[in-house]
Amino acid sequence: MDNFVVSARKYRPITFESVVGQKAITSTLQNAIRTNTLAQAFLFCGPRGVGKTTCARIMAKTINCMNPTAEMEACDECESCRSFNNSNSFNIYELDAASNNSVDDIRNLVEQVRIPPQVGRYKVYIIDEVHMLSQAAFNAFLKTLEEPPAYAKFILATTEKHKIIPTILSRCQIFDFKRITVDDIFKHLQNIAMKEGINAEEEALNIIAQKADGALRDSLSIFDQMVSFSGKNMTYKDVINNLNVLDYEYYFQMVDNILNKDNNSILLLLNKVVESGFDIQHFIQGLASHLRNLLLGKDVRLIDLMEVSQQLKSRYAEQAQKCSQYFLLKTLDLANQCDLNFRNSNNKRLHLEICLMKMCYVEASSPRVTETQSQQVNKTTSQQVVETTSQQVNKTTSKRVVETTSQQVNKSTSQQVVESTSRQVAETQSQTPTVRAGRLSRPSTISITEDEPKKEEVVEEVWNDTIDQERLAKVWDEFANAIQSSSPSFSVSIKNAEPQLVNGIEVHYKVDNMLVTKDQNNMQALREYLKAKLHNNQFVLKEEIIERARETVLYTDKQKFEKMATDNPNIVNIKQSLNLQLDI
Q: Is there a contact between 18 and 75 (Cβ–Cβ < 8 Å)?
C-alpha cells in the first residue's frame, strides 16, 4: 500500500507560475532575478497558507539554477535543481525560528554564512516564523543581515510582522502576501479534483473555498477530509453536513417568510436551525451575508462581487427582484445590530426572534407614498387640506392664488374645496413643493437608523430693559445671598466679584479662581436670575481673573520670631539683654 501524501504537499507549487493568487509578488521576484537586482534580505509576511515559504523555496531554487528559462523559472534538470528536488542541496538552509530561537542558533547560522557555496551561485537561508526569535537573537543577527557576503541571501517568513524589531525590517525588502480569493481557491480545487478523478459539484468546492478563509493550505486539508468522507463523488449536501455549514436554502426560505410577513413560519424555521445543532449567532451572520448578496443582486454590475457559484448568483438575482432597496438596507441594518448586541443579550434566542419579526414590518416603514395612503389623505377633512395647501401656496405663489382659494372655500362645499385646491396646486407645481402624503400616516414600527424628526426652534422673546449700576449690584447681591446655603463657596466668590456695567450691556466681574467660571450650573443660574430680575436678556457676562495676594503662613519658631521682630524691633533687644536662645 502506497504512502498517502496530503494534497497540500502533493500539489505544492514548484514554479512561480503555479503559485496561486500572488501574481504581483511572483512577477516582482522574477524581474529581480532577470535583471540581477536581488536584495540581500527579503521578508515575506502575511496570513497562514498563502504561499510565503513556498515562494521562498521556489526563489532559492531558481536563483541557483544553472539554466533558467526565459521566464526565469528553474529548469529542473541541472545539478542544483536535482539536488533541491531530492532535498539534499547544500546551498539552501531552512531554519524554524519557533524551535531554534536562541542566540546560539543564530551564531551557528552566522558561522555557516562564512563558507561560500560549492555548487551554484548563492547560499540561501530561509528562516520561517522569524518573529519567534528572541531579542538577543535578533541583535546577534543584525550585522550579518545588513552586510552579508555577496553569495548569501536571507529570506525571512512570518505571520506577525508587527513583532519584528524595526532594525530588522529596515534591512529587508518586504513583500506582503494577501489572502487568496475564493475564486482562485475554487479554481485550484477544481483542477486538483480533475487530476485525482474526483467528481465534485461546483457548489461543494465553493463552500470549501469559503470555509478556508483565504488560506490555500486549509482548503486542501478540508478537500482531503471531504474525499475521505464522500469518496470519488463529492456533493454539496455531503460538504455542508460534514463541515456543519448552514444550507443556503435556510436563508432563501427565511427571506421569503419575512417578505410574506409569516411570523409562524419564521419561528418554525429558526427552531429547525436550532434543532439541527447550529449556532444561532452564525445564523444571523449568515443571514446578513445573504442580505448583502441580495443587495448586490439588485445591480447586474455588482453580481460578480458575490463569492458564490454561477447557479446561486442567478437565484440571488431572482430573489433580489422581490425586495426593495429600502427593505434590504433596513433588514441588513437590523441583522447587523442584532449581531453586535447578541453577546450582551440574556435571552439570545428571543433576541434573534424579535429581530426577525421586526424585519417583517420594515416594508411598512418605507417612506414611499402608496395608493392607500393617498386615499386616506384625500378623505381628510376639507379644513385640514385647505390649511396645509394655503401654507405652502403662501410661500411660493402670488396673492391672487390665495384670494381665489379663499373665495372657493367660502362658496363651495367640502368636496368642491378639495377639487379647487387640487387644481391650484397643480397650476403652481413647478414652484410649489408637493404635499408628501406619505408622511401624514407613516407608521413608526421600525426606526433603527431613521433620522429623528427635527425639533422646532424656539425663538426667545427679546427683553431689553435699561440696566443701571445700582440695580445690577442689588440683584447681584440678592443672588449671592440666595445660594449661600446650597453653594457657599460660589456665593462668596460672586459676592466679592464687584460687578461693573460697561457700555450698557456688558457685565464685567472679577474672580480669583478659574473654577468659579467652570461651575456651569451656578453660572447658568446666575444668568437666568439676572435676566428675570433685570428683564433684559441681551447682556453679556465677562469675567476677569485676578490674583489676590497670598497670606504667608508661619510654621517654625524662627519664622514667627522674625515676624515679631519686624513688627517690633525692641524684641531683639530684649532677647539679647536676657541672653535668650530660640529652640529651633
A: no
Q: Which of 526, 535, 460 is nearest to 499 (CA)?
A: 526
The position carrying cell 453580481 is 303
Residue 311 neighbours by CB under 8 Å, 6+ apart: 202, 203
- Helix 182-196, helix 216-230: angle, nearest 10: 40
**Spatial separation of the C-alpha atoms in residues 490 and 144, rounded to whole Å:** 70
Q: Which helix (H) or strand (E) holds 41?
A: strand 41-45
Tell the residue number behind the cell numbers 451575508, with chain if given.
289
Judged against a pLDDT cut of 90, whether residue 42 lies above it is answered with: yes
- At 79, the pLDDT band (50, 70, 90 cuts) reads confident
> Residues 97, 61: contact at Cβ < 8 Å?
no
Cα-Cα-Cα-Cα torsion 422, 423, 426, 427, nearest 10 degrees, comes to: -150
Q: Distance between CA atoms of 447 and 373, rounded to whole angstroms?
A: 20
Can you give the pTM of this predicted structure? 0.56
For residue 157, list its beta bridge partners.
44
As a whole number of angstroms, the distance between CA 543 and CA 497 comes to 9
Average pLDDT over residues 220-241: 87
Alpha carbon distances (Å) from 511 to 514, 516, 543:
7, 7, 7
Dihedral angle of Cα 388, 390, 395, 400, to the nearest 10 degrees? 160
CB 176 within 8 A of CB 45: yes
The set of residues, in sequence order, having a beta carbon less than 8 Å from that of 425 and lying 6+ positions away, is 389, 392, 393, 432, 434, 435
- Helix (H) or strand (E) run with residue 113 in it: helix 103-113
